[in-house]
Every structure is written in C-alpha cells, then in structure tokens.
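Working notes for the structural subgroup meeting. M.R. asked for a predicted model of this chain before we commit to crystallization trials. I am recording the input and output together here so anyone reviewing the notebook later can reproduce the run.

Input as submitted:
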Amino acid sequence: MSAEGNIRRQAAQTAYLEACELELRAFKPGNVSLHSEGHGMTVEDFRRSAEASAPFLCDENLSLGEKVYFAIEATWATVGCNTNLGIVLLAAPLIQAFETKSEAEPLREALRKVLMGTSLGDAEWVYRAIRLARPGGLGTAAEQDVHAAPEVTLLEAMRLAEDRDRIAFQYANCFADVFDYAIPSYHTALSRWAHEEWAAVAVFVGLLKRISDSHVERKFGTRYSRMVAGRMAEIEAAFATSEMPLQAMELLREVDCEFKTHGINPGTTADLTVACLLAVGLTARQSSGER
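Returned structure, recorded in token form:
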C-alpha cells in the first residue's frame, strides 16, 4: 500500500473507533453506554467489537460486501454475540466512500457512487454476515430472503427491505436520515453546548422521536412506538428549556430504566448515531487534509 493509502486507512480507522467510543459515552436511554449497561451486553463488548471490526472495514483491498462479512466474523470471534451488525452495515459504505472519493468530492456524493455500484457479490457477502450475526427478530421475507442466495445487487436487496428496516432505508436513500437530519442536528447541538457527547445524545433523541426504531419494532411490533416517541419528546423539551443538558440527567435515567425494564433496546437508532458521528469524523479529516 502506498504512503497515501496508509494515511487514508489510518484516518478512516481512527474516525471509526472514535465514533464508536463517542456513541458509548453518550447516554442513550435503552442502550448500552458508560452510564448504563444492559441487555446482557457490556461497554467492553462494544469496544472490543469496534477494535476487531475496524481493520476489515478500513481494508481498501476488500469489496464492500467483504468488509461487512469479515468485520462481523471478527466480531463474533471476539465477543460471540451480535453487538455491531447495524454499525458495520452503515460504516462500510461510508468508509468505502472516504477511501475512493476524489479530494474535493463531498462524502455523500462519493457514497452515492458506492451504493449505486454495489454488486450481486456484495449482496452474497452481506447475506452471509447477517446469517452469522443472527439479529433478533430477523424472520423471513417474501423476496430476496437472507436465508437464501440473493439474485440482485446489494442496493436492490436493500430497496426491497427499506419499508421494514431503517438501515436498509439508508442504503436505498443515500443515508437520508444521517445527512439530512442527524448531521445538522449534531452540529446545532455542538454549537449550543460545545460538548460532543451531549451532541450525540441530541442526535439519538431526535432520531428516536421522529423515526420508529426498526430493531424495537421487529421485537414488539408497534406496541411501544408511541410511548418511546413521547418519552423522547419529553427529553427534547427538557433540553430546550435547560441551559445545560446535564440538567436532564435525572429524566434520562428514568427513561433508561423504563425502557430496559420493558426490554426496549433502540439499537437501530444507536447505529444511526454512530453513522452520523463517523460521517462527521470522516468529513473533518477530509477538511484537515488527512485524506
């Protein structure tokens, strides 16, 4: 690998690890974080998963689908459970876009090219990764079910699933939730509070208020959707009326306990938060000349 390639790979790996760590430091009700573990998983499980998956996600010699599969294989060899399938599925095309973009090209435009260029082979590798990870509530699908061999490209498969899975929706819509909502929300909160962890919390809360978490709905249907959105609205209101977000900590703890008592784990929303933080980090490295 060239010196430039080594610099680019290191920049991508650092951005990925920093995004995963920042998401763990953010208090996201219902999820595992430094503030509150749960669902049979620990912060260290997620840290070790990030470290195990990073070299494969940032390997320029691997295809998009290979990045996903080998990252998940390494995760399972390390922690033996599904901690990061959604994170890996979202991170892989973002990192591939960073690796392949021209110097002045916006990250999202490069991402669009990556997504449009996915292949049947990518779909085969990703299907293998999903079967290995065995995400909760996976079930079956009428078309292009992951338990069978795919017959379409990865993008086409994601388009078939976008109505029931928010990560598939990102592939089908060039990461619309990330670029159109999450990143602007992150920068707004960061400008207000000058605190990355609380900006990440604001992203998570805003996403979960506006978009039903597909991981939760695979498990429970719509039973808790209105309650979850309502609780996020309460937190948003507390943020809006507080000079410092720390003043909402008691409410965050209350909601976190309530969610975990019911088994509510908004994992897809946490994955989207990581994708937001990763995109911000990759863009910052492009601006600073690390790419």
